[in-house]
Amino acid sequence: MTSSTLLPWVIGSAAVAVLLTAVLFVVKVAHHDLTRRAGDRRAHYIGAVGEILARRTIPEGLPVGWSDDPIFHDTLSEFLSIVAGEERRILTELSSRLGLSDRLASRARHLHRSAARAEAVHHLAELASPAHGPLFHQLFGDRSPHVRLGAARGLARLGDLSAVPRLIQALAAERPWIALRMADMLLAFGPSAVPNLTKWLREIALVSLQGNRQTTQVIRVVGLLSDPAAEPVLQELLDSPDPLVRMRAAEALGRCGTPGGVAHLAAAMTDADWRVRAQVASSLGMIRDPSALDVLVTGLHDESWWVRQNSAQAMAELPAGRERLREMADEGTDEIVQIAHYQLALAGRGGS
Amino acid sequence: MSLFILWFSIAMQGYLLAVGLASWLELRRHRHLGKFDRSADMLSSATTPPVSIIVPAYNEAAGIVDSVRSMSMLSYPRFEIVIVNDGSTDETLDRMIEAFRMEAISTPYRGDIATAPVRAIYRSRLPLPIILVDKENGGRADAINTGINVSRYPYVLLTDADVVLDGYCLLRAMRHVLEDRQATVAVGGNVRPLNGANVEYGKVTKADLGPTLLERTQVLEYVRSFVATRPGWSRFNTMLLLSGAFGLFRRDVLTEVGGLSRGHLGEDLDLTMRIHRHLRDQKRRYRIVYAPDAVCWTEVPNTREVLSRQRIRWHRGLFAAVRDFAPMLGNPRYGGLGLVAWPLFMLFEFVAPIIEFIGWFVIPISLLSGRLNWPVALSLLLIAYFIGAANSLLALLLDEAFGYFSRPIDALRLIGVAFLENLGMRQRTVWWRTRALWGGRSSWAWGNMQRRGVANLSN
User: Strand locations in B207-301, DSSP E?
Assistant: First the structure.
């Protein structure tokens, strides 16, 4: 090895370093300039749209460039996500006058880049025009998960219940992150989605008895919708062989919050899995029915720390339960005294 | 020998370049996900899991109140902040009690992990989810373990009292958890130097490089480590170190491994390695990922003395980890971690400073004795120097995605540091790392850097 054989390597490495220096400097300067310009345009759009909303009229001769500018699309979407009623109508009309809806629909349909399609469909979802319902259905079958998510958002915004079964399917088919967002879309339908969801639970989950991500998500959504109409199927799911399903069913019953669920939940307090028992105790606290008190007192002696804690917490939700906790704070064993004091302190009714 | 050392330096820079390229691929994927996955939807979603933020505090009276106030403003639907006062001798406890109207409550304490005795647990009377634990002094690891015991939620964020968390960092880190909730056991965040930055109401409004060359060099080091190295390792699920300033963990996994090791100098490295070992031993599917967009800011040393102490402590931690996890080295049972990541980490982080230190003596002797050809040695040194600078420049290019230091003058300063770093500063770090290998100061459990406090950083 001689210095002459190494010379090309020295020159090469120096050239790479110099090239990277130049690229870095140019990128920094360009980025700085682009960020500043984008900030200026954004500020301009915020001001303009804000003024349109304040004046409640759309001026004639809107600049044509607005509908082509992604920064305007973002700004308009942000406004649409926070306004309602008359202001929403004005913004919808603004997008219509600019021809934005058609332009976005065309982009969502025809562009090759999935990122650009996703961007267009998310803006369309914010506009939520009933005319785009068929397009959203079509895009729900797109190859990009981000486009499918945007389409689901649009369908949820439109309250199109025919999309619910497809959304339930998506809970299983999509990767976890997208599936969670699809669950959010199901929630966005509100209680009107419950009949479809309970029908699925009855026809699929109860028959297959197989707990999976899809089943637990549907139960969770049903619980969050807090519709008492779902209670019968949730009560049946408390007998599922899968502890995760039983846990989610107990949680959902607690959220539905009617005394009708107490007897079933009380029976589940003897479940072999401590996670189910802990959730049952919490749910009984959510329902706040005095008939659950005896079961909760039993829970205070459970072998699991979480069941004992949750039982005490649930007792603190009941007037009679707080009374019982006060008695225990004076007479119980060390841990129960401590638990009782803690829950009473949290409930603001005494304790140290 | 001299030629070996010179070639070793080139190989090390080549290794960094390869990891930098892997990081580039990973960051591209992150950018795409970040743009379309709508992390902000988590804010309004009922399915977003709650998180406990655990903050150990030892003599942090100067900044604890502002830090907690800043943390309480995080954009996340449900979280609690658990401050663990580790027997502070200053007014940390009193300031917390006064500022957040904390009141002592008799609370059930779950002893999942053994810790020093807890004196009292306080809860805020304000509508803020703050819990203050006052305990006997036991060190940072012990304080965190206490926080893990007290925490209620399934995920815990381990951080420090002197950091400023970006408003969306928790959301962005948890987004990675929700990508695969079954497998994701830990998420590391992007730590950036806070020196010189503008902080208003507990938020960084403008990043800066800091006024001194020492601070700017550390900016470059952090960028290289957090932007050009960790994403690359994360891509292959072989990330060896989650920073103590920002590490999000599944609580059950932390209790399974017994929490942080008390008295370990490199407790963050030790914890990450133990999680890897535990889960691989059990043949469980898991991921430890890096979230480059989950940013937190921390003060870095602004004097040479403090920096040297910090680096020596870090390197002793690495030394302890090398000793503890030696059986994993080259062990196929640990997959890519045992066969590639851990050996490379050991070679280039632990062994390299020793080799470089030896080179300071061997190369001049060889040159003077005529056993090493001057032009060849110079050529090899220049190659190593330029590839080293290219690594730093590549890291800065990758960092451009985050949009910090966007002024052209910052670019010039950073480019200058990239070329100057290898002319003295790097050698100084090698000296500190080498010094760490022989005995010396005894107590390194808590750093004793003079903090200015988050509120006082406003320019």
Answer: 246-250, 287-298
Task: State whether the Cα torsion B168-B172-B175-B181 is positive or negative.
Answer: negative
Contacts A–B by Cβ distance under 8 A: 132
| DSSP three-state, residue A174 | coil
User: Is B77 near chain A, with CB under 8 Å?
Assistant: no
User: Could you tell me which of B22, B142, B132, B15 has the C-alpha nearest to residue B85?
Assistant: B132
Judged by CB atoms closer than 8 Å, whether chains meet at B407 and A177 is answered as no
A27 vs B35, B387, B397: nearest CB: B397
- Residues of chain B with C-beta less than 8 angstroms from the C-beta of A282: none
Chain A residues closer than 8 Å to B367 by CB: none
Region for B432 from its dihedrals, namely left if φ exceeds 0, alpha if ψ lies in -120 to 50, beta otherwise = alpha
Question: What is the arithmetic mean of pLDDT over A313-320?
Answer: 88
Report, in this order, helix, strand and coil percent for chain A, each rounded to 5: 80, 0, 20
Cα–Cα separations (whole angstroms), residue A123 to A92, A118, B135: 12, 9, 52
Taking the CA of residue A61 and the nearest CA in chain B, the distance in Å comes to 33
**Residue A351 scores a pLDDT above 70:** no
* Residue A350: DSSP 8-state: S
Tell which residue, B243, B277, B68, B274, has the closest CA to residue B173: B243
Q: What is the pTM of this model?
A: 0.84
Residue with tokens 């006060």: A326
**ipTM, two decimals:** 0.79
Query: What's the token pair of residue B207?
Result: 């990043």
Residue B187, strand partner residues: B248, B289
* Interacting residues of A57 by C-beta distance below 8 A, sequence separation 6+: none
Residue of B9, B371, B393, B414 to mutate, interface with A, max A Cβ within 10 Å: B393
How far is A282 from A352, CA to CA, in rounded Å?
24
pLDDT tens-place string over residues A194-241? 999 999 998 887 777 666 778 988 999 999 998 888 999 999 999 888
Helix (H, G, I), strand (E, B) or coil at A336: helix
Chain B contact for A29 (CB, 8 A cutoff) = yes
Q: Look up residue B229 and give its amino acid.
A: T
Q: pLDDT per residue over B415-439, tens digit each? A: 999 999 988 888 898 889 888 887 6
Beta-strand pair B51-57/B79-86 = parallel
Radius of gyration of chain A, Cα coordinates, nearest whole angstrom:
29
> Any alpha helices (H) in B37-126, and if so which ranges?
41-44, 64-72, 92-99
Give the SS3 label for residue A6.
helix
CA separation for the pair A351, A330 (Å, rounded): 10
Residues 4-43 of B with CB under 8 A from A: 32, 35-38, 41
Position B266 scores a pLDDT of 84
What local confidence, expressed as pLDDT, does residue A187 receive?
92
CA distance A257 to B290: 40
Give residue B107's region: left, alpha or beta (phi > 0; psi -120 to 50): beta
Assess B102–A contact: CB distance below 8 Å, yes or no.
no
Tokens of A127: 């506009």
Element spanning B366, H or E = helix B352-368
Chain Cα centroid distance, residue A263: 31
